[in-house]
Amino acid sequence: MKDFFFLGIQGCGKGTQGKLLFKEFADQYDYLEMGQLFRAIMSNDNIIGNFAKNIVNSGGLVPHFVSLDWFHTTLQIVKNKKVGLMVDGFPRAMEQAEFVIKKMEEYGRDFVVVHFELSKEKSIERMMKRAQIENRADDTLEAMHTRIDTFIHETLPVIKRFEALGKVITVNADASIEDVQKELKTKLGF
């Protein structure tokens, strides 16, 4: 059984697609969504919640050691439960990617990175729509541009690093939810 990492520019639908896939295979997989985890922590008015909130609301990334600790903990949990893992939105930076490569090898876990490909223009259009619907504090236009720039400069090189290892499949995210899910399942062999 392979583990799956869902990456793509903001608004590409990786969370929607990952949750749809997980819903169908919940008896075989656990699901880790780093963004949801951070939002849950940021909802608390305390030192850690406020620390994360200030970074994320400006479009930045929380320091790597936080994500690395959570990911390592997650690997231990799925190992003990003997299930696969679906990860939404991680790793997003090279330090995280190298940690993932090392830990996946250490735990003897095979994996695939799914790159949901979408243009920058479509990304902004979708994030603007999401901001209106969900009223998320971190979906300001300035934060959107910061996150897109971060994706281009930090996460795209991560995807290229995994491509060099033969671990990436690319899915066209500029289609209907149903068509993207169909392509995803076909490419993953489901």
Summarize the structure.
This protein is α/β, with parallel strands linked by helices.
Question: What does this molecule look like?
Answer:
The longest helix is centred in the last third of the chain and has 24 residues, at about 140-165. The protein has a single domain, classed as 3-Layer(aba) Sandwich (Rossmann fold), CATH 3.40.50.300. It is of the alpha/beta class. It has helices at about 15-25, 35-40, 45-55, 65-80, 95-105, 120-135, 140-165, 175-190; strands spanning about 5-10, 30-35, 85-90, 110-115, 170. Helix 1 crosses helix 8. The chain has a five-stranded parallel beta sheet with strand order 2-3-1-4-5, sandwiched between helices. The model has no long low-confidence stretch (mean pLDDT about 90). About 60% of the residues lie in helices and about 15% in strands.
Number of strands: 5
- What's the SSE pattern? EHEHHHEHEHHEH
Work out the strand percent.
Answer: 5-15%
Which architecture does the CATH hierarchy give at level 2?
A: 3-Layer(aba) Sandwich
CATH homolog superfamily = P-loop containing nucleotide triphosphate hydrolases
Q: What count of helical segments does DSSP give?
A: 8
CATH topology (level 3) name = Rossmann fold
Structural class of the helices, strands and pairings? alpha/beta
Features:
8 helices, 5-stranded parallel β-sheet, 5 strands, Rossmann fold
SSE map:
Blueprint: E1 3-8, H1 14-24, E2 29-33, H2 34-42, H3 47-57, H4 64-81, E3 84-88, H5 94-106, E4 111-117, H6 120-134, H7 141-164, E5 168-172, H8 177-188
Parallel strand pairs: 1-3, 1-4, 2-3, 4-5
Helix pairs in contact: 1-8, 2-3, 4-5, 6-7
